[in-house]
Amino acid sequence: MYILFLKLVNRFLVVSALAVLAACGAGRNAFTESGQGSYYADKFAGRATASGVPYRPGRLTAAHNSLPFGTRIKVTNVRTGRSVKVVVNDRGPHVKGRIVDVSKRAAGKIGLLDAGVAPVRLRVIKQASGGGRR
Domain 31-126 - what CATH class? Predict the structure, then answer.
């Protein structure tokens, strides 16, 4: 009976340790944010972004106020349920209440073109090195 008890305790400890390790690994890129998202106007095509790279409407890029340049994020339009993966290469949006601006191509993929502004949820897929703002 005592051996059975020890085996159960051992299994519990192993499962608990694995759960803790999984949670630690998942937390590394677990940044999420919800709010209003929009997309770049056509007039910004070709202009330099804050990272120095020109804005290209046909690329899958985004502006965020604090994530490091090069960070890959998944942006989901809450209304449509559609998502797109983009790379942060600019700072913004510069409109109160908005959390992300995406390129025109990215906006099309998540059904944001007609609305212009919609509730979105973003999640970091892979954070670039460098911590926060640049």
Answer: mainly beta
